[in-house]
Each structure stands twice: as structure tokens, then as C-alpha cells.
């Protein structure tokens, strides 16, 4: 079977770039809302939701239509971290989310992303089910915090964020163990 070169300009990579472009749009909406204007908070939540959805769609498109590229492998996790990291920082800056939660999640996210790039010389660490659950919980929690839900619905945000935090830490430990095993297996060969 001949190997075909996948063009960098393809649907999956365009979706990744759209996610990157939506980050400043999201930031402007949050800042304009001051986390007090319900209409702008809804717009920010929608922008965040659309950008987050492109993460799912670009991965599906890349795998389904064999459009995986080196650009996508690097840009996709950077786009993900830029979006969720920016959202967490903004939520903490506006006093909606404790800074320690943001710091724990960001350290785990960037640390695991860097580690995954580092271990590429020994093999690829695919996203685990736990990692996918972590992403869904983080997106759900952030969206819940952004959307101006009235009490008692607003209380679900901290519950979702706590769940996201626990899964984030547990999967981080799991990825470190997987990286160690991958390295050990490569060293044994």
C-alpha cells in the first residue's frame, strides 16, 4: 500500500486553528462581561462550548479520514491547553474559582503534555479513557461556571469542578506511570 502524504491544510487542522482563534474571542467576551453581565456570560459560555466541541470534531475527522499530521499532533494539545488554561485563569482572576484549583490543573495539564512530547522517542502515549473523562469534566465544569445559572443550579459548578480536579490528578499519575513503563519497555529492547 503506497504511503500518501497528508496535506497540512486539511479539515482537522482548520478546526484546530479555529479553536486557537476562538480563544481571544472567548477572552474578550469574559472580560467584557466582567462575570456580571448575564448576556455576555452566555456568549462566553457558547464560545467556549463551540471551541471545545472543535476538539472532539477535529480528532474524529483526523482519525476517520486519515488526516493526522505533525502540525496537528503539536497544535491540537496546545490549542486545548490554551483554551482550558485561559478559561481557568479568567475564572480565578474574577474570583469565581479558587487559584489553587487552577494551579493544580494547569501544572498537571502542561506537565503531562510536555512529558508526552518527551516520551515520543520511545512511543506514543494515546489519550486514555480517564483522560477523555477528565476533558469532558473540565469542559462541563468551566461551562457551568461561565453560564449564569441561578441558585440552586449554580451549586453544580463546584461539584463538577471537584470531580474534574480529582480525575485530572488521578489520570496525571496514571500517565506518569504509563510513561515510566513505556520508557522501561524501550530500554529493555
Description:
The structure is a single chain. With 189 residues, the protein is mainly α. The protein has a single domain, classed as Up-down Bundle (Four Helix Bundle (Hemerythrin (Met), subunit A)). It is built from six helices and no strands. It has helices at residues 11-33, 38-64, 70-93, 99-118, 129-146, 156-188. It is globular, with a radius of gyration of 18 Å. The protein starts with 10 loop residues before the first helix and ends with a helix.
Portion of residues in helices? over 70%
Average pLDDT, to the nearest integer?
91
Q: In CATH, what is the class?
A: Mainly Alpha
Number of strands: 0
Coarse shape: globular
How much is the radius of gyration in Å?
18 Å
CATH topology: Four Helix Bundle (Hemerythrin (Met), subunit A)
CATH superfamily: CDP-alcohol phosphotransferase transmembrane (TM) domain
- Beta percentage is under 5%
Rounded to the nearest angstrom, the distance between the terminal CA atoms is: 28 Å
Largest sheet: none
Q: Note the run of SSEs as H and E.
A: HHHHHH
Classification by helices and strands:
mainly alpha
Q: Residue ranges: pLDDT <50 for 5 or more in a row? A: none
User: Total helix count?
Assistant: 6
Tally of individual domains:
1
Amino acid at each position: 500500500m503506497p504511503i500518501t502524504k497528508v496535506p497540512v491544510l486539511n479539515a482537522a487542522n482548520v478546526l484546530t486553528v479555529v479553536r486557537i482563534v476562538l480563544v481571544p474571542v472567548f477572552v474578550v467576551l469574559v472580560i467584557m462581561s466582567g462575570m456580571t453581565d448575564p448576556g455576555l456570560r452566555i456568549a462566553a459560555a457558547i464560545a467556549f462550548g463551540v471551541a471545545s466541541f472543535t476538539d472532539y470534531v477535529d480528532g474524529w475527522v483526523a482519525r476517520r479520514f486519515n488526516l493526522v499530521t505533525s502540525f496537528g499532533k503539536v497544535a491540537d494539545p496546545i490549542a486545548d491547553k490554551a483554551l482550558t488554561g485561559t478559561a481557568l485563569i479568567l475564572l480565578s482572576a474574577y474570583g469565581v474559582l479558587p487559584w489553587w484549583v487552577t494551579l493544580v490543573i494547569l501544572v498537571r495539564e502542561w506537565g503531562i503534555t510536555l512529558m508526552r512530547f518527551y516520551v515520543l522517542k520511545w512511543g506514543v502515549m494515546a489519550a486514555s479513557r480517564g483522560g477523555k473523562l477528565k476533558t469532558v469534566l473540565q469542559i462541563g465544569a468551566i461551562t457551568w461556571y461561565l453560564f449564569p445559572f441561578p441558585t440552586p443550579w449554580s451549586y453544580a459548578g463546584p461539584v463538577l469542578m471537584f470531580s474534574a480536579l480529582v480525575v485530572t490528578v488521578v489520570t496525571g499519575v496514571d500517565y506518569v506511570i504509563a510513561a515510566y513503563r513505556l520508557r522501561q519497555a524501550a530500554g529493555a529492547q
